[in-house]
Amino acid sequence: MLNLKGKHIYLRALEPEDLDFLYQLENNPEVWEISGTTTPYSKHVLKQYLENAHRDIYDVRQLRLCICNTEDRVIGLVDLFDFDPKNRRAGIGIILVEGERDKGLGGQTLELLCDYAFSVLDVRQLYANVTPDNEKSLYLFEKMRFEKVGVKKDWIFFNGRYTDEILLQKINT
């Protein structure tokens, strides 16, 4: 069985007790640009989401996992989204809470999830969408051998302005 554990973090499925963490994260306007969120989520809606989080990636086309530190505290989330088993690809996104960034944890997380996607889900390629001003994410994905393959001009409208989105891709050869 594939181990979703790194040196300083591990990945696990969402649990009902993650409700407060999700509520805080999803309702933080500072991350709405990267998540595509435009309105706050109620605890009721997030509770319903958690009740369905066990559904199979082949059914719902996405997988969200908690990033936990060695003290079992949730410090972020990592997602596979737009899972396309026919074309063997998926999008990947990651968010770590403030105070947990710049410690190498994002790299460990991406390494674990890429290994899982390539070996268990038999995905051939993963892609990420990052805005040009998100220099830390661009650095992280490039460090993990994702290549910049394109720019989507004026792709995101947020806070009254348009911004580009860079498409990065990692192919399992």
Automatic annotation (TrEMBL):
GO molecular function: acyltransferase activity, transferring groups other than amino-acyl groups
Domain N-acetyltransferase: 9-173
InterPro entries: Acyl_CoA_acyltransferase, GNAT_dom
Keyword 4Fe-4S: no
Keyword vocabulary terms for this entry: Transferase
Protein's UniProt name: N-acetyltransferase
